[in-house]
Amino acid sequence: ATYELTVSAPNIEDRSFTKPLLCGPGPCDLWPSVSEALAKPVITPLCDEHYNVIDDIRAGLQYIFQTRNKLVYAVSGSGHSGMETIISNLLGPNEVLLIASRGIWDQRANIIANRYGIKTIIISAPFNTTFSHDTLEVALNKHKPTALFITHGDSSTGTVQNLKGLGEICHRHGAFLLVDTVVSLVGEPFFMDDWGVDAVYTSTQKALSGPAGISPVAFSQFAADKINNRKHEPPFYFDAKLLAQQWNCYGNTRQYHHTLSLPLLWALRQCLREVAKETLPKSWARHAATTAHFHRRIQQMSLQFLVPKPEDRLATVTTIVLPNGYDYVKFYKYIRDKYNILIFAGLGPTVGKALRIGLMGVNSTIEVADAVADAMMGALKVKSLL
Ligand code: GLV
């Protein structure tokens, strides 16, 4: 047959490009073993090997979240899908979400919650600081929310929030604790069960050194009970009750929900194998040591950190203030062009105020930290960047 096409075939060229070293706030470079895992064969959702992959991933996720909870799986989508999953499953229209805001991600939580008719109350801290538990408790007591949302690591500001003991405070006020660990997990200590976290999500393209597109989530038993008894329906695609069946969270179901991306499952499984091989304490120590070394180099250059208190500084992303007159965008582009290293400028509240440098996952090494510091020293000598 002959067909009259209204759109002709495009000429899609196979362009080559030189991959930069990824030292921005994410995505990070992949573990070589993860690149290999992406090329493993695709299998159908209803066969034993697929079930095994899912079971392996759930065990790995319980390890990285440090949780014995059962409702643990990965959402098909980038980090935002994890955010949307925990908010839409735990809160329904007219319930109140208290948002502790210091960066861009909590603002996203606000936008998402509002789309579900959830009422939000925002309390803010200056973007280069974190919240005291007393401040959070006063707000919990005043607003009596269904849940508190807070980011652990914030890639837009380079801060890390102390969460130890926060779950107990939330529970005392009848609230769930919802946490974003996209840029902190595996790079910073995190203990879901010990800290009383009720819902948490992370992403694969940061300290896990995997590809974006699949987002681990975990719920406490307290949260799972609410989900099982809730009155509202979240979006079908993000429904934790249905996905618990697909992911065999309770050990008795292999229900089909949607077709998971096998390459991403293989990749996530391999990221988790890398963490299990290294172990979490060693991974946390490596990230802390690399960043401490990088910070010493930054101090030798007499540059300022955006985050004044050392204990608030995130191990995976450092925010740096350039001397007066430097253009942040020109500066990071120069480093990309001259050294083939990709760092990044500010985002959200830090636009025009800081550079953001990510040393995480496979790139959390002294060699990479030195390469970035050397490139910055070179760029600081270039007067045209002023
Ligand atoms: C993305 O996560 C960013 O921080 O730029």
Short description, anyone?
Keywords: Aminotransferase, Pyridoxal phosphate, Transferase. The chain is α/β, with parallel strands linked by helices.
Kindly describe this structure.
With 386 residues, the chain is of the alpha/beta class. It folds into two domains: 21-27 and 279-385, Alpha-Beta Complex (Aspartate Aminotransferase, domain 1), CATH 3.90.1150; 32-277, Aspartate Aminotransferase, domain 2 (3-Layer(aba) Sandwich), CATH 3.40.640.10. Helix content is 39%, strand content 15%. It has 13 helices and 15 strands. The chain has helices at 32-38, 48-65, 79-90, 105-115, 133-143, 166-172, 192-195, 221-229, 240-246, 262-278, 280-300, 328-339, 366-380; strands at residues 21-22, 72-76, 96-101, 119-124, 147-151, 153-154, 159-160, 176-180, 199-201, 214-219, 304-305, 317-321, 341-342, 344-345, 355-358. The strands form four sheets. The protein has a seven-stranded mixed beta sheet, sandwiched between helices. Strands 11-12-15-14 form a four-stranded antiparallel beta sheet, covered by helices on one side. Helix 2 (48-65) packs across helix 10 (262-278). The structure holds glyoxylic acid. Glyoxylic acid is lined by residues 25-26, 155-156, 347. Substrate binds at residue 356. Keywords: Aminotransferase, Pyridoxal phosphate, Transferase. It catalyses: glyoxylate + L-alanine = glycine + pyruvate. Belongs to the class-V pyridoxal-phosphate-dependent aminotransferase family.
